[in-house]
Amino acid sequence: MTNGFATRAIHHGYSPLDYHGALNPPVFLTSTYAFERTATGGERFSGETPGYIYGRIGNPTVSVLEQRLAALEGGEAALATASGMGALTALIWSMLSQGDQILADKTLYGCTFALLQHQLPRFGISVRFVDMTDPTALAAAMTPATRMVLTETPSNPNMRVVDIAALADICSRSAATFVVDNTYCSPYLQRPLALGADVVIHSATKYLGGHGDLLAGMVVGSKAVVDRVRTVGLKEMNGACISALDAFLVLRGLKTLTLRMDRHCETAMCLAHDLEAAPQVARVFYPGLDSHPQHALAGRQMKAYGGMIALELKGGLAAGVAFMDALEVVTRAVSLGDAETLVQHPASMTHATYSPAERAHHGFTDGLVRLSVGLEDYVDLRDDLMNGLAMVSRYEQGA
C-alpha cells in the first residue's frame, strides 16, 4: 500500500520505536562518527559498507529528511544542503565540466541568474538563455555541448509557466540533464520527475520549511545522480552541508505542508482576483487567472496555482513603492513561503543582479511587485492591499 502525500510527509523514513519511542526524529549534533574497527572506516570511505563518516557527508537527522523528500517528489534519492544556492551549485559542480553548456530559461531567481550569467563563464561553462514557454525554442537551441537544461516553473518573479513534459521530451533525445526548480510549488502542487524531469531542486528555506526560520536546499533525482552530487559537489566542492537542527526544522515544516499550501493557494486565488479588479492595477501575474497566458497549462501540471502573485501598477515604480510602503499587515521582506505575507520589489531586491537592460530582455519590469501570500485571514490581507492601493490613488492625486 502506498501512503498518501500527507501521511508520507509526516511519517516516511522514521519509526519512533527505533529511537526509544521519540515521536520526532532526534537531532544528532555531531560532526564525526566512531568506527567499530579500523577497517570499518576504510570500508565506509570506499563505499563497501553503509554508515556515517563525517557530518559534511551525512547525518541521521538529515537522512530522514532526504528519504522523506525523495518520497514526496517521487525520486530515488535526495540530498539536503545548507541553502537553495548550495543545492544548485553542488549539482552544477558535479555534473558539468569546462566546455559544457547550460540552456536556461529566460527568467530565473536573481542569484541563479548571477551564477549563470556572471560566474560560470569564468570556469569555461557557457550559458544561453532561452524562452522555454516555447518548447521549439529549446529544441532549436540544443547543441552537442548542451549538458544541462534549467528552468523554474512558475518563474521567479513574473510567474511564467513552462511545459515540463514537453521540455523533458526534448531533453530525453540528448545528453542534457533536465533540472526543474520546484521551489514555488513544492511537491504537493507539482511533481516534475513524474512529468519527465531528471532532477528537482528546492530552496527548502521557502515552502518546505514554511516558517522563515531556516536556510536549506534539496536535490532530488536518481540515486546515481544524488550520490555523485553528495560525494563531489557537496563533499569536495562547495561543502554546503545542512545542519542537523535545520534538517529537523524542515521535517517539522513538512508535517503541515499540505495544510499550509492549501491555505496559501486558496487565499492567493482570492487576492489575485481582487487585485486584477482594482483600478490602480495594470496587470496581475497569477497562473490561476484566466488572463495568465499559460493558465490552461498550469491547470494540467499543477494541483493548484500556488501562493505567489506578481503585479504591476498603472503608476509604475513610484506607485509600486507607495503601495508597498502603505501596507501594514503585509510585511516588506524578501523570501517567500512563510506564514507571514511578504511583499518585495524584485528589481531592487531579489533580482538586483539583473541590469536594467537585462531585466527588460529577460521579461520583467522595474515596476513589478512580488507578493508571497501567507496564512493570515483573507479579509485582513484583502483590506490591507486595498488600503494600500487607495493610498496610491491619493499619492498620485497629490502629485
UniProtKB/TrEMBL annotation:
Keyword set includes Ligase: no
Matches recorded under InterPro entries: Cys/Met-Metab_PyrdxlP-dep_enz (IPR000277), Cys_met_metab_PP (IPR054542), L-Met_gamma_lys (IPR006237), PyrdxlP-dep_Trfase (IPR015424), PyrdxlP-dep_Trfase_major (IPR015421), PyrdxlP-dep_Trfase_small (IPR015422)
Cofactors: pyridoxal 5'-phosphate
Matching CDD domains: CGS_like
Keywords on record: Lyase, Pyridoxal phosphate
Statement: the UniProt record of this protein carries the keyword Mitochondrion: no
Xref: Pfam families: Cys_Met_Meta_PP
EC class (word): lyase
Organism superkingdom: Bacteria
An example Gene Ontology molecular-function term: methionine gamma-lyase activity
PROSITE patterns on file: CYS_MET_METAB_PP
EC number per UniProt: 4.4.1.11
Reaction equations catalysed: L-methionine + H2O = methanethiol + 2-oxobutanoate + NH4(+)
Family (UniProt): Belongs to the trans-sulfuration enzymes family. L-methionine gamma-lyase subfamily.
Protein name in UniProt: L-methionine gamma-lyase
UniProt organism field: Fulvimarina uroteuthidis
Lineage of source species: Bacteria, Pseudomonadati, Pseudomonadota, Alphaproteobacteria, Hyphomicrobiales
